[in-house]
Structure formats: structure tokens, C-alpha cells
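This part of the workshop introduces the protein records we will be handling. An example says more than a description, so a record of this kind follows:
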Amino acid sequence: MTSTDHYSSQKFSFTFLLLIICVFQLSAQKDPLKLGNEAFQEDRFREALIYYNQIEKIERSAPILFKRGVCYFEINQLEKATRDFERAWEYGYTNAQIDFYTGQIQHHKGNFISAAKYYKKYLRELDDSDISKESIRKLIKQCGRALDLSYKRPLAIIEKLPGGINTAYNELGLIESPSTEGKYYFTSNRPNIASSMSASDYDVYWTTYKSSEWSKPERMKYVINKRDHDILLGFTPSADGLYFYRGKDHAGEIYLNKGIGEKTRTQPLDIPTTLSLLNSDVFFYNDQVILFASRDLQGYGGYDIYASIFNNQIWSKPINLGPEINSSFDETSPYLSFDGSELYFSSNREESIGGYDVFFSSYLYEAEKWGKPENMGIPINAPGDDTHFSLSYDGLTAMLSSDRKNSYGGTDLYVVRFKEKRGASSFTPEQIAFLDYKIPNYPDKVAKESLEDFLLDSNTVVIGKEAISGSTLNLHQDKNIELAFEPIFYSSGIDLINDKNQKEIDKLVELMTSIPSIEISFNCHASEDGILEYKLFSSLKIAERLEQYFVRKGINDSRIHIKGFADNYPIAKSEKEGGDIRYANKYNSRIEIHFSNYDKQNVKLERIPPELPPHIANKKFELYTTLIEDAITYKIQIAVVGQMYRGMALDLFNDTIVEEDEHTGLYVYSIGLYDSYIEALNVKRDMDRLGITDAQVVAYYNGQRLSKDQYVYYVNTFPDLRSLMNYNE
């Protein structure tokens, strides 16, 4: 458990205990059903759950089961919500809302075809005069759009920040520190008092990311955080101040806090729009150009995105970015890339897959207008609201806020890792073309001393920029078992557990349930383009998604091993190799299944390879399986990290893989594939000379990593292991 998890766990346990005490005191006075219904009507779903779970006969009360299912849905416990909706239906609850919520669950799980079916069923049950019919039609269209996007190559992978940073409340606008590596700021309405369960005003917090761990967040002190909402917006180009929103729900202003040491000054900025909590996402490109969303001005409908330039000590009249960007729907959360050529924003237009999605548009210099906005696709966008997108300075990482249903609750913070650079330019732009604005010269770097002197408080240096029903396999350990499994094919991580793969996956779950000793390895291969570190990490994350599904089905994660192979071992030739791109896309993105720790006398498990035309078959995977089958091989471990690894070893050596350490949850990177220890040792020595000093030789049997204790078991059969054992001693 990380320090953040421990902190979050302690805090939650204390507040939860106090809440339970209060609940039982109230329960002595009032009926839990009445209290639960009151909380339900006021959208206090966590509190309603506590009361509903005190009702003795709730498991046979269909209306209360339905309400409890809604509560579980609202707090992101989709499996429990599904269970309650199914039971409510079994006990005769025929309210059409069950179809709506079931559609929502399938939508958020990425099962878009199934979601559309439930939405259509719900639509048919509504009266013609029901005003909600149009919104249901929009949801059906969004499922179709999401299905189309799920077949496209993902631009990135996405990671949720850990508990402690993310909470059951709202976290917004993760902003990278431009001068201190690994420092980030964000805004949250989490309670300021540990014993409170009520949301607080929004305040600004900061955290650091070092040695693959996020630190416990700390609240910035009174200079910035006052009694009203305070939302961080950005930093000055010269790194001596920060911009933030301060106000109440319905009215507020933008402020600049600037100064050195104790002599800081907070002053309001008279920007040309009215602001509120829901209308406070102002983006400072620099201290003379802002972009913001407003619905108070005469635009194209809903919220539109505008720009304003600070000239002669006043902000110019808002400039609407035009019909290429703005629509009859809402456009919010603008972000302009460093070179001014790419605009990112959130919109709930019809092209979204649910709620607000992140879109981007490139400026067409010859046409002197913005290009048609494009949806950034899955997994950057998910059903729900995805907002507050911003790029890091290297263009390979982005920050995002989202209320997707795998979150802790409310809106959580996510990190996006792109496979190719975006928005980052190698030159300093001289002007922003769409505004005809000449950019002033700012110093490339601010002296470290001046940054350390700019203190907002004593701690903070502010710087610039699903269960199986019934047995189908009839597995019993007293009978001989013969089963064959195909690889699990996918086109993107979100379509991994689709209708086509479900039968194969459930067969695997039932096998592991029936044979408690058996262990399984998910070896994920990818066919996408991009830099190697991205492809490796992406393939591991897809395997991790399948692992999480098995854990939800009751399989202990200690029995599951996951590896990412990127595109090292394709089974179909690429187009460049004279193959057919259709076969490459269809068969190279896959998860190969490997079993271990079972009685091979009574259990026979076979892999069924796909049938490929000989002229497009790639022999790399076949060669790999031949080399590792019933053999000891050696690899060189180069890193153990908590996030994506970037290092020169990835570019210098072949056969790179990444696997999850089952004890720590960290990601272990290794290179090479050697059939003798001395060959691996010589390569390790070469790495030492290159400055890669943490490398170590490790042994594998049948492609599975061996622990040091297992060396003793295999050394008589494979005497070469003795050299590794002696070296480790």
C-alpha cells in the first residue's frame, strides 16, 4: 500500500465510523426506509445506501432494490447496481427505468451495442409526449459513434491518479509545474475537516510525483484558499504568479497573485465576461491572451469559446472562434497548444460518445481558419464528461478530468500518455495566426533562485508553467479435462470484453474456478504504430483490463500474470513486409493465454492458432514459442517502475517486454532472449559500460519468470542455471 492509499484509508475509516454512529442514533428515532428515501430524493446516494442496507427484507423488496441499484450506479459500483436491477426485475418490478439504467451501465462499460438495445427498449416504453425521448435518441446515436471510434487506433493510454489525490468528491484541472519536474497542482471540493462527509468549497492543492509514487496532497494556505471557491487556472509566463478564480456558485472573478517572498499581491483582472462556478474555465495562453467559454454573449448556441487580448491596459472585446469551433451545443474548457496551432476543448455535440468529449482542431494557415474538430476517441473520451484537458511541455503527456464510472466518485484526475508528440513545437512561435497577435519575448527559463523566493506559503513554491450463470464446461477434478483456447483478439482496449470474446473469457473464468491451483498468464501483443515505450505500456494496460475482469469474477489476482509484448511477435505480416493490412490489424492485436501449475496428466489445455494464408503468415511468434517451449531462457531486467518507462535500453536491444510484479504491482521491464547464462551475462556487462547499472539477469521457464526459490527445482534438469545461482550468491 502506498503512503497515499494509507492516508486515504485512515481518513475514510475515521469519517465512515463517525457517520455510522450518527446513522444508528438517527435510526433509533426514524425508520431506515423513510430516512433512505429522504436521502435518495435529495441525491445523497451514499447516505441512502447506509439506510437501505439496514432494511431486513430488502432482498425481496423490488422497489427498494431498484432504488439501491440506482445508488450503487451513482457511486460507480456498477456490478452491484446490475445485481440489484436484475433482482428487482425478478421480483416483478417492471418500471422502464431499469432498461434505462441497464443501458447506462452497458454504455459506461463500453458495450455499446448492448447499451443501444436497452436504450431503444426504453424509448419504445415512453409516451410520445415524453420530453426525454430526444435525449434517449441522442444516447443511441452516441453509442453508434462510440462503436465507430472503438475500431480506430487509440491515440494514447490513460491512467487514473491514485486514491488520496482522487476522492469521492470532485478533482479538477491537474496543472503541471513548468519548472519543477514532478510537481502538480489541482483543485478539489473535498471536505476540509476530516470528520465531515459534506463537500467543501473548492480549494487548490499540490502534489508531487517522484520515484513512481504520488505524494499525499497538501492544501495551499490562506493566501490563495479563502472561504469561497478558489480554482487554479494557470501560471504567468515569467513564473512569478498564478491565476485563479474566486467566487461563489453564481458569481466570481479572476485574480492574479504575484510577487516575491512575503510581498505577494492579489488583484482582480477585469476580463470581458461574467463568471460563475460553472463558467470559470478560463485558459491563460500567456498574460496577454486568454481563451474562455461563455453563453452570455451572442454566439452559435450554448457555451461558445472566445478569445481576448490585453492591449493598452484593457482586455479586448471577446472574439468568437467561429463556426468551425463553436456549434449549437456547448463548447468549454479551451486549451491552446504552445505553438498556437492546435486547439483542444470539450463539447457535448452529437459527435461525442456521451456527455462532454475532448475534441481538437488544427489551424489551417493557408485557408486562415480552423479545421473541422475531431473527437480524440477512446480511451481519452468515455461515456460521461471529459474536461480540463491540457498538454504537458514535452507533448507526450496530457492531464484530464473525468467522471467516468471507474472513478472514485465525482470528477477524478487522469494522466493521458500519447504514443506520438502532440502540440509541442521545436520553435518559439512569433504570433498566433487566428488572432493576428504578435507574441512578446519571454525568457526561456526563470532563474531557480527567483522561483524558490516566490512563496505562497511555507510549503509551496509556485512556478510557471458480471457472474457466470450455470456451468457449461462441466469441469470436475476427478475427470480428465481437455480444452482448447483461441487467443483473445481486440482492436482497442475498450472492446476487449466484447460479445465475441465473452464466451472464450467466461470459459477461462470457469476453468480457473473449477481448478483452484491453476495459474494463468495474459500475454498481450499489439499491432499499433508509435514509440516503443508507448506500445509496451499500452499492451500491458490492456492485459491489466482483462486481469481486473477476472478479479471481479472472484479469481485471486495472485493466480494471474500479465505481460506486454508490444509488436515484437506478430503472427501476420505487416503491409511493409508484403502482408495484408486487414489480417495484420485483425490478428496481431491479441492476448495469448498461457497456463501453469496444474496436473498435465489429467488436464490438457491447448492453444488454437488462427488459420492464416501461408503468404501472409509471420513466423516471429512461432519462433519465439519454439525457443521458450520446455526450455530455460534468460532475459535482462532493466527497470522496475510504477509508470511508463523511458530509457535508451529500449532502443538498443530487442525482445523487450514489460510485466507486472505480482507482489508490488510495479512494472518490470526486461530485454533480450538468450539460451545460455554466459551470453546474457556478456550483454549485461555491455549495459554496465553504457551506464545502465541496475540491470540484472533473470531466468524464465516456458516464458514464465522463475523466482530464486524455483531455481533449485529446475537446476538438475537445466544445469546452466547453476551459473546464475552462483552469480546471485
